[in-house]
Amino acid sequence: MKLARTILAGAAAVAALSSACAAFADPAPAWVLGDYRGVSPKYHLREDLHIHRDGNVHIAIWKPGGGRDERDGMWMGHHIQFGKDKYHVERIPNGIRLVKESDRSDVTIFHHPQ
């Protein structure tokens, strides 16, 4: 019984932390909203990005040979934060460019899918 209470308390703490993280996201500006598709030249990976009005961001990174990794992040000013990774966001014709703060050679160009 004591173990069950500890597990429930831990699950409640994780749920509270998850919703608190979303609460720290800034609302995203209209010019950046929507669905994007890009390719990382450095890693040769296809990436699908969705930026919500409330500042929540979701990315799916397609692995060579199948499968994908998915990450949730948040809009913060002119940056997107995925866990410890921070990306500068720049508006470009027909899309956006993401540049990883800790590795400026990690650049992905995203365009709206046709």
Percent of residues in beta strands? over 45%
Number of strands: 8
Give the helix tally: 1
Low-confidence stretches: 3-21
Strand sequence of the main sheet, in spatial order? 1-2-3-4-5-6-7-8
Question: Based on helices, strands and strand pairing, what is the structural class?
Answer: alpha+beta
Distance between the termini: 55 Å
Radius of gyration: 16 Å
| Overall spatial form | globular
Q: How is the main sheet built?
A: 8 strands, antiparallel, barrel
**Overall mean confidence score, pLDDT:** 85
SSE succession: HEEEEEEEE
Q: Work out the helicity level.
A: 10-25%
Secondary-structure topology with pairs:
Layout (H helix, E strand, L loop, with lengths): L1 H22 L10 E7 L4 E7 L4 E7 L5 E9 L2 E4 L2 E8 L2 E6 L6 E5 L3
Structure in words:
The chain is α+β, with helices and mostly antiparallel strands and 114 residues long. Helices cover 19% and strands 46% of the residues. The protein is built from one helix and eight strands; from the N terminus they run αββββββββ. The protein has one helix spanning 2-23, and strands at residues 34-40, 45-51, 56-62, 68-76, 79-82, 85-92, 95-100, 107-111. Strands 1-2-3-4-5-6-7-8 form an eight-stranded antiparallel barrel. β5 and β6 form a beta hairpin. The termini are far apart.
